[in-house]
Amino acid sequence: METNSDVLIIGGGLAGLTAAIHLSQNNLKVTLIEKSEFPKHKVCGEYISNEILPYLKWLGADVSELHPTNISKFEFTANSGKAATATLPLGGFGISRYSLDNFLYQKAVSNNCTILKDNVTDVTFIKDIFTVTTANQILKAKIVLGAFGKRSNVDQVLNRNFFNKKSPWLAVKAHYQGNFDNDLVALHNFNGGYCGVSKVENNIINICYLADYATFKQYKNIEDYQQNVLYKNKHLKAVFENSALLFDKPLTISQISFEKKQPVENHILMIGDTAGLIHPLCGNGMAMAIHSAKIASELILEYYADKCIVRNQLEKNYTKEWNKHFGKRIAMGRILARVLTNKTLTNIFVSLVASFPKILPEIIKQTHGKPIAIN
Ligand SMILES: Cc1cc2nc3c(=O)[nH]c(=O)nc-3n(C[C@H](O)[C@H](O)[C@H](O)COP(=O)(O)OP(=O)(O)OC[C@H]3O[C@@H](n4cnc5c(N)ncnc54)[C@H](O)[C@@H]3O)c2cc1C
After folding, report:
1. Residue 118: its pLDDT value, please?
2. SS3 64
3. Which atom of ligand 1 is the closest one to the Cα of 283?
4. What φ, ψ does residue 205 adopt, rounded to 5°?
5. C-beta of 36 in contact with ligand 1 (< 6 A)
6. Can you give the pTM of this predicted structure?
7. Which of 99, 152, 255, 368 to probe ligand 1 with, by most ligand atoms within 8 A of CB?
8. Cβ within 8 Å of residue 186, ≥6 positions away
9. Rounded to 5 degrees, what are φ and ψ at 38?
10. Tell me, what's the pLDDT at 1?
11. 254 pLDDT above the threshold of 70
């Protein structure tokens, strides 16, 4: 049967765009479908681990062109005001998703990927071929990558387990102007959630927090909630009071699920958040999205190059690699989130890491990867 491309990618966030660049660079015909326009702001802490730098350079996407901030220090504070600091083992950089996603999009376009602005409404797999239906057309492909993020209508179409379970988490993010150290990423705990603060390009401060809906809904609006709940942490109060909002209003998303997902479903290889979301307090979701795109792309290239590899083998290999690289990190993220959203445990945690400063970098290492090796 005739197909429109070798690989069809659903979703043009970091995972989808990275895979599009990697596969097209190796002469596969790629179609990517993204429902939103570029550039666009996204709810994200925008601190990204340096582990992905060698790989992005190898792809010809050198992010230093975007003038990110270099981040080397980490501060953690509890609602009580107790604080602990550490040097980040690998370090990272601060860049807005507005710039980063658009940068990768431009790179994918220049690699001759076909990028369609459309909404995928259905995916079926019959006789070894996928049929992907969008609002405007029907496309066929032998391989489909699911890169549709943490929650999408496609999850519902595929009847994925996590979709029907209600999640208590929502997130709020905005850019601000003010004073904040360029080289610092701070994680401030508050009752019912935690808030990341760091700088991105152009001296802009990103403030992004994850909040428990049960606590949030007791207040009439975001401002009210922040003043009554987040300001209880004196460090966060100082950050907000010394910053001016640059957006018209903060961006919000809800139903953020940290439930287990499968890296392959209905023969679709899932990459980025579509395969599993790590708690944002780990600051590693973006690096994982990019890394999972690399792993999937390499296996797809092998599949197309070697006629002996069958689909079943491709799926098994991807599942194995995904679990090897990300399984433990996600599990560690879940444990940390449980500790750091509990008042008593958080205070014990901060006292412990403040007294034994070597512990914190070791914990950070458990949620991060090593610099991505290029073969
Ligand atoms: C509050 C919060 C803070 C975070 N902070 C950090 C941080 O500081 N550092 C870090 O590394 N990670 C952070 N993360 C995680 C990070 O944002 C994600 O891991 C990352 O965005 C994953 O990229 P992705 O490509 O998988 O998904 P996304 O970037 O969400 O991209 C998915 C794309 O799919 C598109 N799409 C969905 N459905 C369809 C459809 N039907 N048809 C067409 N297109 C579709 C969407 O429009 C979207 O563009 C944070 C997450 C949250 C929730």
Report:
1. 97
2. helix
3. 9
4. -100, 130
5. yes
6. 0.97
7. 152
8. 74, 75, 76, 77, 196, 197, 198, 235, 239
9. -105, 150
10. 59
11. yes
